[in-house]
Amino acid sequence: MKICFAFLLLASVASGTYRKDAYCSMPPLFQLDDYDTCLLKNGVFCLGSFQLTIPKDNGQMTSIDSPENFGNSHMDYRGKKLYDILQANSNEKHRFNHTLIHRGLCSRMTCFGRADGHLSNRKKFQQCVNDLTRSQFGLVATLIRLDYCKSAQTPRRVPPDIADQGFVALCAALLVANLLGTFYDLLRNKEKKGNEVLLSWSIINNFKKLIHVYPNEDTLVSRFNPIHGIKSITLIGEIVAHSVIVSHISYLHNPDFLETRRQHLLAMMLTNGSIAVQGYILLSSFLFIHHFQLMGSRHNISSIQLFFIMLLRRITRILPVYMFMVYFTATWSRFLGDGPLWIPIMDKEAQICRLKWWSHALFIHNLYRPNDRCLLQTWFVAVDMQLYALAILLAIMLTQRRRAAIKMLLVMFVVAILCIFVAAYTYDLTAMVFITTPEFVRKLYHGEPSFNWLYAAPWGSLPASLLGVMVGFLYYNLREDKINLQNYRWFRVLYRISIVAVFGWILSAYLLPQKPSYLLSTVYAAIDRPVYAIFFSVMLFGSIYRIDQLWWRFMSWSGWQVFGRMSLCVFMIHWSFDLLQIGLQTNTNKMSIFEIGGHVCVTIFMTIVSSIPLHIMVEKPIQMFLRSSLNI
After folding, report:
1. Alpha helix segments (H runs only) across 212-276
2. Strand 140-151 versus strand 100-106 pairing type
3. CA–CA separation, 95 vs 438, rounded Å?
4. What is the SS3 assignment for 52?
5. Looking at per-residue confidence, does 252 or 79 come out higher?
6. pLDDT tens across 426-454, in order?
7. I need a labelling partner for 248 at 20 to 30 A (CA). Which of 341, 443, 476, 528 fits?
């Protein structure tokens, strides 16, 4: 029997693959006692992570592998070989780090409560997990991070402070402003022009703007209707991806579910789907250039004034709802519930938001202390604002020479890609597809330079922004020359290819080796997002020129227009609901397609329900109020 067990372990190491029996022989990656029951029984609940190692005396045994000593040192032999299996499988890209285990134990339910009463809770927790791991698996467990130890007597919440009271006062002020604006809208003389400042706070007026639908006629405005569909579908895909990401930070009953599913081809839509964000970057620059060119002769002020006015308009569009959510996360989000993962997830998020709120207000939080992340998804807001400022400068400088602008921007596009390659090669940065491993995702990419200084840095998205500016100038030139790309067969074929290519490029990362060469890794880091942006720009052009009427009408559905107007609110809120669902879990989470689907549905439903009042009562009124007050 012992020889069979040894053979099983050695065969698993040699093959480098998980068999179900070998997987079950390993220490569970996660273990979580019932949190609520523990506190009801007046127990102490501790949560932390442990590093598994071979016992020191094991390393000193030189004859452990000899057959004659196998029976006497079975436990040591088992621990050593089991640790070899853990290391071998942890090195695979699609696996968690199985030498790092995570435990949440209650003193009333485990040996934790039978430890020496003179020891601290930390020491008892450490001793308990180590004793269990040593006796069951022949391995040493060393506590490397203690999230907390708490009992029923530990206050579940800190009392509200002045920041929390300030948020309540802000909400009350916004509510009063909305009520005043609404009453004014109801009681005013409709035959006369109303006060724009007061009307900006009208709930009725803002709701009408939200549900207003542009007809799908062939007009300059309706040609852009598909953009709402593109934005909405991309955002829904992002919500799905984030739901899968947060499932990695929960305590999983069956982590092998996520590990095995990641090897499927379609899993690339999640593993490599992050490049789809480049579509938003491109759209932002494209729409600005289009709007800027249409205003044309109205720009009768200096270039410096024009720059700050355009930038201020963008800030009034983004900042109100953005900082509202940062403020909420820093204050009242921590009071929404409780659970074993509440402190390391929700409380930690609130603490970081309190620390970095000012950098969010200045749109530099992706560059300042990048490993401390308040609202993970908001790196995009900072990058978008930084590149939007660049787009304004380019628009001002190149508007008078539109024909040459496209060639100049093309050169800038190529140079930007080359600069990314040089930076990636010099500083060992790589594409997201190579770092989106279960362990890095579980840590939300904390401490990963490629995430901080390539993915979430403005220069990483610079090619897409430059391409958006170039496409904006190209579209304006085509309109001025009365060229309709719909009439060209070559473009219709190219457009249809681009739709397939947008998805095909994401899935093609499946063909990349798990451990690419240094050169391949850096080359791919430089081209993965620009190539996607090129395909996306062709698809965008085809949508604007109404190629393939059926597809165009689907993307122009009126519901996408409403959803698209709330996209900023949806973008800002959904991550909080993702984290909230994980923070409220009191036991290990049994993963399945239905579990993930349920998480996604709850997130989408609650996000939309919350986004409607947030858009009507916060985003839109403050935006219109500021623009009316500042006359911009």
Report:
1. 225-248, 256-261, 268-271
2. unpaired
3. 6
4. strand
5. 252
6. 999 999 999 999 999 999 999 999 999 99
7. 528
